[in-house]
Amino acid sequence: MRRIPTILAAALLTAVGTAACTSDTGGDEPETAPACDADLAAGLSRWADAGFSGSIAIGGGDGPACLASFGLANTEAGEANTEDTVFAIGSVSKAVTAAAVLDLADAGTLEPTDRAGDLLPGLGGPAADATVEQLLLHTSGLAGSHGADHEPLDRADAISALGALDTDFAPGTDYLYSNAGYALLALIVDEQTGSYRDYVAAEILTLPDGDRLGGFWDGEPAPEGPRALGYGPDGEPAQSTGDFAGPHWALAGNGDVAMTAADLAAWTEALFAGDIIAPDAVDALRATVFDHGDGSTELPGWVALDAAAFGTPVVMSAGGGGDTGHEAVVAWLPDTGVTLVVTSNTAAVTAGALVEAVGPALAAGEALPVPEGHAEVDPEALLAKEGVYALGTGGTLTVTAADGFLEVAADGADAATAMFASGDFTAEEAADHDARVLAFLEGDSDAGREELAAAEDAFGPVDDLASAGTVVEESELRTYVRFTGPEGTGLGWYALDDHDGVQGVWLDAEPPVFTLVPTSENEFRQENLSGAGVGLRAVFTADAMTVTGPAGTVEAVRE
Q: CA-to-CA distance for 21 and 59, rounded, in angstroms?
């Protein structure tokens, strides 16, 4: 789960506060669910035309007040997303795990101050000393991953891998987001109840009337209803379709749950109403906090934003990415009990990107901006733009025509900087990550020396290393590094967390590639930041490519 951008919070807050929803259907919409008011529905439909595919649910405590679905759940079969379409909710699953832990605490089965090692036999290493509360709030200091998402990991191996993790700081003294910490909580639930999955399904996903909301994306018990197939930036189906046989302990507790948007809204309302866990446990959830010092506070499975920015508090959770191709965002307003859920299954306009793109207008109480659609451009006109374009500072932008769009490979730090645009990270954060990666590889830490040795194993002796630019890929900052030595050069990328722990690395990489979609024959925009004048723009003339983005305007001349 990424930290919630403030513009996203503003968008969700204002969307719920200003978008009146009714039970009337309009036009040719099927009469299967309450429809959003006409203006909001029309504005969202334009974004569906621009690439948003998914579902939206708004509830007010008395059931759904507004349900809307757009796009296709399966492009090959032509199956549409509907209110019954199931999505993987990614890291929003942590809110489910946190509820299970707080339920056990309320029953006296465990205490927030209990050590993980005392609750889970066989657990060793620093993880054993982390308390339940520290794991809930990501303050345990645990760094690194215990397993890949959809690769088999059994219970014993998961415990062993968690016990082998290091910590980046003394437990309870700082914050570091940790999927591994929530996997450990799932194992604790499993140990204390006899079955993590059975307990979550029966006690946490089930309403007092016996209705179960959702289930697990992979394995049993599964959610009822048709599933959306996820699609990557290239339009190809995502790797995970919900048929992974397991064992599932890599994703358990941190990203394994799936629901419809309507079910996630209903579950959120029931949770905070005290219908999932006892009211005292809900009070404990809201009282268990880590203050980030910026108006946001970590809660178990959630992030709370105070009223300073928007006039009323909001509690949020978000998840996505990985190999499901899905994204989910949920927001709950404590003062009104209103809940908003957005889910998506394509990379063109994700759930988070949708609300970020329309956020400025929503925050101002204005009508939704009209996204810029993909212009139809003659394939020959796209082919005419192919070539290598050189920046005056040494980098190059290699342009290749594809089916209706252009792909641009940025080779060099200046080229990557020119193409940088993100709704989640600033140019300053990218520059800081760039500097930290170089310092990490050139420093004296054991981890840095190990990574440099791995690079030399891949590329040969390294005499020099230099940044090849920092970009945002799969919702994280990645700094590309060029290694130079007597045997030639090699390229790799690194993703570091806030404490310089390695979140990801890939050696023998290719330069980062960006997708540009046409707004006219010679003008293009970056695909994943569509509409409302945001993002990156590129204009082509006969022999040059002019790029305008957060870094300013640069010109590259065709070689």
A: 10
pLDDT reported for residue 533: 41
Question: How is residue 212 written in tokens?
Answer: 């179960």
Distance separating alpha carbons of residues 20 and 89, to the nearest angstrom: 26
Look up tokens 């990379």; give the residue.
Answer: 347
Query: What's the rounded Cα separation, in Å, for the pair 464 and 444?
Result: 16
One-letter amino acid at 138 equals H
Q: What is the mean pLDDT of the chain?
A: 87
The residue among 250, 268, 223 whose CA lies nearest residue 322 is 250
DSSP per-residue letters across 92-132 = GHHHHHHHHHHHHHHTTS--TT-BHHHHSTT--TGGGG-BH
Paired residues of 290 in beta bridges = 298
Do the beta carbons of residue 105 and residue 86 sit within 8 Å?
no
pLDDT tens for 443-458 read 989 999 999 999 999 9
pLDDT at position 30, please? 36
The pLDDT tens digits of the residues spanning 366-385 come to 566 667 656 678 899 999 99
List phi, psi (to 5°) of 79.
Answer: -85, 125
* Cα–Cα distances in angstroms (integers) from residue 345 to residues 48, 179, 267, 328, 478, in the given order: 12, 22, 21, 9, 23
Residues 6+ away with beta carbon under 8 Å from 33: 64, 67, 68, 83, 262
- Cis peptide before 369, with omega less than 30 degrees from 0? no
pLDDT tens profile 397-455: 999 998 888 999 999 999 999 999 876 688 889 999 999 999 999 998 999 999 999 99
Locate 335 and state its tokens.
């003062």
Asked if pLDDT for residue 386 goes beyond 50, the answer is yes
Alpha-carbon distance of 87 to 73, in angstroms, equals 9
- Type and span of the H or E element at 190: helix 179-193
Residue 39 host element (H or E):
helix 38-49
What is the spatial distance between Cα 394 and Cα 413, in angstroms, rounded to a whole number?
9
Tokens at 1, concatenated: 């789960």
Mean pLDDT of all residues in 465-484: 93
By C-alpha distance, which of 80, 85, 86, 84 is closest to 28? Answer: 80
